[in-house]
Design goal:
alpha+beta, Muramoyl-pentapeptide Carboxypeptidase, domain 2, about 35% helix, globular
């Protein structure tokens, strides 16, 4: 289950990323899989079919992917060394297109995203 907003967003992100290769670590998740991965966030955007995690690995790759996705109107989870929930050592770039997926969201990105 992938929303059209995600597919268009990924295509635009790829273009904005100079058509460099992007590896998707995670896309759509069933509620059961989401519960195993992170039971604290049962309504994660992956469950809605409008989110992906792109493999980053370094701060530079994360920043470049983040910029490319934000130019494609994505909400991008920040890395915050002072917040344990946002510390993931730049191993992935979470991007979602909730702000343009009007079937399940009709709003804005969270503050600081």
């Amino acid at each position: 289950m992938l929303k059209s907003a995600l597919l268009l967003g990924l295509e635009t992100t790829l273009t904005n990323y100079s058509n460099q290769s992007i590896t998707i670590n995670s896309g759509y998740r069933t509620p059961k899989v989401q519960n195993v991965i992170n039971a604290d966030v049962p309504t994660d955007r992956h469950v809605h079919g409008d989110a992906v995690d792109m493999r980053a690995g370094t701060q530079t790759v994360y920043t470049n992917q983040r910029n490319a996705a934000k130019q494609a109107l994505a909400c991008v989870e920040p890395v915050d060394p002072n917040n344990p929930k946002l510390q993931h050592d730049y191993n992935h770039t979470h991007a979602d297109w909730r702000a343009i997926d009007h079937e399940s969201w009709n709003g804005e990105c969270p503050a600081r995203w």
